[in-house]
Amino acid sequence: IGIIQDKDAKERTEALFVIGAIGPGASAAVPAALAALADADMQVQQTAAYALGKIGPAAKDSAAALKKLTASSDDFVKMTALWALLQLGPPSEDLVKTALPLLTTALTNDREMVRVEAAMSLGKLGKAAATSLPALEKARQDSSAHVRSAVEEAIKAIKG
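Above: the chain's sequence. Below: its structure in token form.
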């Protein structure tokens, strides 16, 4: 937890990855990870969102700060924040309304991991993401096997 306050962004990022790997058992790190969402370094922000999502419902107090990150200029930060919000508990109607267009658009992002996270997050929404099925069907043709796999899982989850 102390490393998250280090001056070196790479060190902060690595510490947040470790916290994410610990998952729900790292609930004591929520305040430090929450503070890291406001970091000047986008990678630190993204990794903090990831760590909070991996901690899960115990990090529900981070929802407001994660919601702010959904407006980030960095697509990966935006997608990770949405993914993390979905890990905190059942999504609200407001979160679904915010997430659907962003996630659907992200299926065509240049970055492979953004496309993977978008598909996984749409799958997490289940039937609520039915309007994204045409975009997911198109994404079945993605050049990345990782994306195609995430898309197939999402389609199954949405169709039930």
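The CA atoms of residues 25 and 135 lie 36 Å apart.
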